[in-house]
Amino acid sequence: MQTMTKTLFKKATFALSVFALLFSAPLQARPNTDAVAQLKSLQSQLIQLKERNKNRPPLAYQVFCRKHARECRGGGSSSVRYNKKLIATLYETNRAVNRKIRYRNDRGETWSINTPFGDCEDYALTKRSELIRKGVPASSLRMAVVKTRSGIGHAVLVVRTNRGDLVLDNRRSSIRTRSKTGYKYLKMATANPKKWVSLLLK
Fold first, then answer.
1. Where does the record locate the signal sequence feature (predicted)?
2. Residue 50's closest CA among 4, 12, 1?
3. Which of 19, 98, 163, 193 is deepest in the core (most CB within 10 A)?
């Protein structure tokens, strides 16, 4: 099913590119009515595909947001400008929180913030809160659920910049681009932290 969905997504995206190209041509070179109808059908399928890409946030995250509504608000730009000041702030925050929280596996799946003991999602939520306090736009800071190369569920904080996504991770002190983490990204918050999307198509 996933393979079929990816194929449909690629076909629809390609068709829309062709559609735009055709309609940029002179009037005498415009496509016939049947071709337009087919392309519009593919456009509709692509829109539906994007709608199906919506995903519910993890249940534990929903509970967290009910308890800590201020920590689950967006605001500001949906991406932040990549520069030396931002990178320094990300490194400092990542290292500080990784040192402050002592790792403890949370079998009860309770997501917390600013806790002395916790696991991956607690690190990520605390980093998000700290970065907002330091002036990074809330809407550019996205919680994400991933799988490691060994198939273990994990959570990280993704920072969306104008040069691509950067990842803060309790497993390492370095900051990596999303494509260099080696993780399989399952779903991630949008600019609105209460709305998540599936990343299986990306």
1. 1-29
2. 12
3. 193
- Between these two residues, 188 and 13, which has the higher pLDDT value? 188
d(CA 122, CA 115): 7
Contact by Cβ (8 Å): 152, 186: no
The pLDDT assigned to 199 comes to 82
Looking at every residue in the chain, the average pLDDT score rounds to 83
Residues 164 and 201: their CA atoms lie apart, in Å, by: 18
Does pLDDT of 189 surpass 80?
yes
CA 3: distance to chain centroid? 21
Q: What is the pLDDT of residue 32?
A: 58
CA dist., res. 122 & res. 165, Å (int):
20
* pTM of the predicted model over 0.90: no
Q: Find, among 85, 78, 53, the residue nearest to 158 by Cα.
A: 78
Domain that holds residue 22: 2-52
Mark whether 41 and 121 lie in a shared domain: no
pLDDT digits (tens, 9 = 90+) for 114-126: 999 999 999 999 9
132 and 159: one domain?
A: yes
Structure tokens at 105: 């596996």
Alpha carbon distance 131, 25 (integer Å): 48
Residues 39 and 74 in one domain: no
